[in-house]
Amino acid sequence: MFKISTVLLTAGLIGTMATAASADSTSHKLDRQAAAIEAGRQSGKITWTEGVKLRSEQRAIARLKGRYIANDGHLSWSEKRVLDKKLKTARQNIKEEKSDSLKRWSGLPRVGR
User: What global pTM score does this model have?
Assistant: First the structure.
C-alpha cells in the first residue's frame, strides 16, 4: 500500500511539473518576443505604429494564457497547442516588421515605448 501511494504521488508531482514547465515555456517565449520588439524599436527597424501593433498582439496572447490558466489552474495540451500557434504567428510578424522597408528616420527621436 505504501509503495502504491508513493508511485501515485510521484506521478502527480511529475504531471504538475510538466504543466508548470509548459506555462513557463510560454512566458519565456513572450518575454523573448517582447525583448525582440524592443530591440527592433531601439534600432529603428520597427516603427512606433508597428511596435504598438506587435505589443498589442503580445498582450492578447498573455490574456488568453491567463484565461486558460484561470479555468482550471493549468494548461491542457490543446490550450498549449493554441498558444504555441499564436506565439509562432507573433514571432513571424515580428520578423516581418523588422525586415520590411519601413524604418524610423534616423533624424527623428525614438518616441513611445
Answer: 0.70
